[in-house]
Amino acid sequence: MFHHSLVQWVLSRLLVGEPSHVETVVLLSQLKQKPDNYINVTIELDDVDITSVETKATYDEIKKYVAEHNAGMKVSNLYISQVKRKCGIEVGKNYNLPKNEESRQPQCPEDKERAIVEALEHFNMI
Q: Are 54 and 15 contacting, i.e. CB atoms less than 8 angstroms apart?
């Protein structure tokens, strides 16, 4: 029997249509079966929680949505990240941190924040 979290991980990668190739290797030699035997695996998709993975939009998808629904409005990755943090969404580590803690970052204007929130709601991220 496969470990449930492994199956969830594999399905989450396969079902969201990610452009990357996912290859899964499972060690079956411990089953002590003849090589001609088949192993049937049944996976009930109702048991797999993929909602958190399938509802994640990329920064480019968020930018595109904002531009299409707000007269070509441009938003930066910085602004998207700020709004995601404000909404309690985890964001990746920022490798472009300022060298000096006293340096200032531009803050997302209210109109752009509203547009980004609308996009996050559209993608069911909040």
A: yes
Per residue in 56-88, is it b (16+ CB within 10 Å) or e — as a string?
ebeeeebbebbeeebeeeebeeebbbbbbeeee
What is the per-residue pLDDT for 104?
82
- Helix locations, the chain, DSSP H: 4-15, 51-54, 59-69, 77-86, 110-122
Query: What percent of the chain has pLDDT above 90?
Result: 33
Question: Of all residues in the chain, what percent carry a pLDDT higher than 70?
Answer: 54
Q: Are 50 and 124 in contact (CB under 8 A)?
A: no
